[in-house]
Amino acid sequence: MTIFEDVESEVRSYCRNWPVVFDTAKGAELWDVDGKRYLDFFAGAGALNYGHNPEPLKQKLLEYLSRDGITHGLDMYTTAKGEFLNTFRDKILGPRKLNYKVQFPGPTGANAVESALKLARKITGKEAMVNFTNAFHGMTLGALSVTGNSMKRGGAGVPLVHSTPMPFDNYFDGKVPDFLWFERVLTDSGSSLNDPAAVIVETVQGEGGINPARIEWLQGLADLCKRHDILLIVDDVQMGVGRTGPFFSFEAAGIEPDIVTISKSISGYGLPMALVLIKPEHDVWGPGEHNGTFRGHNPAFVTGTEAIHRYWSDDTLEREVIRKGEKVEEAFNKIVADTTVTELTAKGRGLARGLQFTEHDQAGKVCAAAFERGLLMETSGPDSEVMKILAPLTITDDELDEGLEIVAESVKTVTS
Ligand code: PMP
């Protein structure tokens, strides 16, 4: 099969990096139509935390479909939805002593963010938001309003939400005390930041370049929000569902956001699904105040339920993610030590890892060199200066080693 580009919009992007037609995939491997194998350090931009077609989830899905289980259920009570909600309460929220109601905002991460922003405005009766430099929250007009990337915002015209960007952790390389500017602007009558409804934050900025906020910075932010009566929204669309180790990325900081957005890997099978978690006292929407045709995809409930049973009944996966993350960190540190490029920085948390280049285009060239060797990776950061890996959390050690070897060779090829 040849590449089919005559009918699809020019906006497509990933295919430009990987100009082959993919056909099948299992675990951390994909195959193209010519039978060439690729290792996947991309994992659907974080939507495939358990890899492609994980067998136990596939079996549940096949069973469900073969008994004509409901696929499209809108808001109806269905067995699949009930099992998902009960399992999420009993296995995810309960053991963590978290008290949230679950809302289904629509199928995507942007739907979840949009819902969170709307809800924060309804809860507080206030309009303004605070976001962070380099944040990424989605492509719809509201989500784009709290996104910090000027290229992405450039596609939109006028954002819908009034939002003020504040410096993310380490923005000033430690030269300015944490939250100095934020607090000043909040309390200074001469500023434009007027009584915001909410702050939206990622604990590790994914699209922004794999920038982990320090745990104490996240705690400071939660404290600031409490003192100034601002709702805290954690966008866990990319870093949730175990990407950094724990199920929720904010667990490490011991904070309890008012609202949490989840999507990408929550179905465990790459099926579209999103959740918004809301403190019970903030569950203020009446019936029908937020609806949508594809809220609650029943096959995704089935795989999502099985994923929780399979991977989150104990802390095995969390420990594995930390261990594999350390392995990647070690490999990246060695690349940094060995390279002739002076300013190469390794960063990340858990299995969200990045290598930041200073020279224009080098991260992209490394990804291209890796593709030639059969490894899929993408870039992130405002200038695509970070080579990013989001390998499936379930990747085997052999596959991880193989991929890291290709990364090292590719960096060497591009920088020497
Ligand atoms: N929030 C974060 C943190 C994300 O990384 C993304 C997607 N990369 C989104 C929201 C938007 O999700 P979606 O692409 O499913 O709309």
TrEMBL record:
Q: Membrane-crossing residues?
A: none
For this chain, one GO molecular function annotation is: diaminobutyrate-pyruvate transaminase activity
Record flagged with keyword Cytoplasm = no
**Which Pfam family, giving just one, matches this sequence?**
Aminotran_3
- Which key words are in the record? Aminotransferase, Pyridoxal phosphate, Transferase
Which InterPro entries does the record match to this protein? Aminotrans_3, Aminotrans_3_PPA_site, Dat, Ectoine_EctB, PyrdxlP-dep_Trfase, PyrdxlP-dep_Trfase_major, PyrdxlP-dep_Trfase_small
For whether the record's keyword set contains Transferase, the answer is yes
GO BP field? ectoine biosynthetic process
- Kindly tell me the pathway this chain contributes to: Amine and polyamine biosynthesis; ectoine biosynthesis; L-ectoine from L-aspartate 4-semialdehyde: step 1/3
* The protein's Enzyme Commission number: 2.6.1.76
Q: Which PROSITE patterns match?
A: AA_TRANSFER_CLASS_3
Which cofactors does this protein require? pyridoxal 5'-phosphate
Q: Which NCBIfam families match?
A: dat, ectoine_ectB, PRK09264.1
Q: Which PANTHER family match?
A: DIAMINOBUTYRATE--2-OXOGLUTARATE AMINOTRANSFERASE, DIAMINOBUTYRATE--2-OXOGLUTARATE TRANSAMINASE
Its family remark reads:
Belongs to the class-III pyridoxal-phosphate-dependent aminotransferase family.
* Name of this protein: Diaminobutyrate--2-oxoglutarate transaminase
The organism encoding this protein is Pseudonocardia oroxyli
